[in-house]
Specification:
Layout lengths: L2 E5 L8 E7 L3 H9 L9 E6 L5 E10 L10 E7 L2 H12 L4 E3 L4 H8 L5 H12 L3 H11 L2 H25 L10 H30 L1 E6 L6 H9 L17 E7 L2 E7 L9 H16 L2 E6 L15 E4 L10 E2 L8 H16 L8 H21 L6 H19 L5 H9 L6
Helix pairs in contact: 4-5, 6-7, 6-12, 7-11, 11-12
Length: about 425
């Protein structure tokens, strides 16, 4: 296998830059730069020099032996001074060495997967951790990176293998008297796994929203203060505001962090009957996006008891432009800030309730695999009801469910998605 290298820290000027080398020639390459290397997993300050004796840098050198590194291979990290010139010089010298090449995007992490240091779900968790912008995203990504989904899948797999083994034993001894009826135990094992999988499937949608962000739509009639409210929440002029009704024609999106939750707030066109074709398209789009949003903030006039878009579920109804003296219920002014803290508290409290049901399955791929397993287990239970003569069919459905769970952690059927996953990583990962 090739020995690869890349900058593992962020690009650009910094106090420290980390260059990672991984593969069978990593220690040899590092020694060519630094001379004697310190013992594995210990750092030492070394003077790095090129083959012609040119000084490159004074750097910390940290070597790892195979089995004790991120990739599972021999690895050496060079902690350089983070100037652009220093990093370029070291990478150039490494690139000139025989048997070394620059890593491809995500190749270090791919080697960790291939060497069974990480499972596929953990790889996805690492990608999410790198991209995390809010506390909720960070916590969720760490949970997946820790192997929580892999451990759960292993437990489900163990139960299903036990159930399949019991059924296959009855098939093997079909012509003999089997002393014990295994159906109750098999049914209990399947039921236990199905219950756990259903909980994961129910929570997967919430987990995906934490990854991608909850959507909160601000809706209401024209000139009620929707755009001003969006600007106040965003802390900047994200939307054009005007006393002229119908200023907002399209959906304006602003991504923000509300108490650790990723939220995209949508400012929509004012809801009213209109003969203006362009405004009419904006109203239609506003209604469509509002219906798809996780939560709606419905602004209304003080004397309007019948909002054009009726609230449902946890939707929040408020009176806009409280700075003009409008009262009633929750009164809000994006201009003066009246009621904003209360509004944010209400939005966060409603979304936190939903986030409390989060699962360890965080991606659409996970949800599809889990639902496929649930479908196979449902068929297996149906076959059990027909007695021992259908045990072989039930066992085959169990094997289908096991294969679906194996795909969660990368044991089978995932080669077609690996390139897509690793393409999102930087060179140093």
């Amino acid at each position: 296998m090739d020995t690869i290298f890349a900058l593992a820290s962020a690009r650009g000027k910094a106090g420290v830059a980390v260059v990672r080398i991984s593969g069978p020639r990593s220690w040899t390459a590092a020694a060519a730069l630094a001379g004697d290397l310190p013992p594995a997993r210990q750092t030492a300050l070394r003077r790095l020099t090129a083959a012609d004796g040119m000084a490159l840098d004074e750097a910390l050198v940290l070597p790892f032996r195979a089995g004790h590194s991120f990739t599972g291979e021999d690895v050496v990290e060079l902690h350089l001074h983070g100037s652009l010139a220093t990093v370029r010089a070291v990478l150039r010298v490494l690139g000139d060495m025989e048997g070394l090449r620059l890593a491809e995007p995500g190749e270090f992490t791919r080697r960790a997967l291939e060497n069974e240091c990480l499972d596929l779900a953990q790889v996805e968790g690492l990608a999410d951790l790198i991209d995390a912008e809010t506390e909720g995203q960070r916590q969720q990504a760490l949970r997946v990176l820790s192997g929580a989904l892999g451990r759960a899948a292993e437990g489900w797999r163990t139960d299903l293998i036990r159930a399949a083994a019991l059924l296959e034993a009855t098939i093997d001894f079909a012509d003999e008297d089997v002393p014990v009826d295994v159906t109750p135990e098999v049914d209990a094992l399947i039921g236990r796994v199905m219950s756990a999988l259903q909980r994961e499937a129910d929570g997967a949608a919430v987990a995906e929203r934490i990854r991608e962000g909850f959507e909160v739509a601000i809706v209401g009639p024209p000139n009620v203060g929707k755009s001003t409210l969006l600007n106040a929440l965003a802390g900047r002029e994200a939307a054009i505001t005007s006393d002229i009704a119908g200023t907002t024609r399209d959906v304006i999106e602003v991504r923000m962090d509300l108490h650790g939750l990723p939220v995209t707030v949508l400012d929509t066109a004012g809801l009213r009957e209109t003969q203006d074709v362009v405004e009419g398209l904006g109203v239609k789009r506003a209604i469509e996006r509002a219906k798809l949003a996780d939560l709606r903030v419905i602004l209304k006039e003080a004397n309007d008891e019948d909002p054009l878009l009726a609230p449902t579920g946890d939707d929040i109804v408020a009176v806009g432009k409280a700075d003009l003296g409008r009262q009633g219920g929750l009164a809000i002014s994006g201009l003066t800030g009246v009621g904003l803290d209360r509004l944010v508290e209400m939005i966060v409290s409603r979304l936190e309730v939903r986030a409390s049901g989060v699962a360890t399955a965080t991606r659409e791929r996970h949800r599809v695999a889990i639902e496929r397993a649930i479908g196979a287990l449902t068929l297996a239970k149906d076959e059990l009801l027909h007695g021992p003569e259908r045990s072989e069919l039930a066992a085959e459905e169990l094997r289908t469910a096991i294969r679906s769970l194996d795909s969660l952690v990368g044991r089978v059927d995932v080669e077609h998605i690996l390139d897509e996953i690793f393409a999102s990583f930087c060179l140093g990962k």
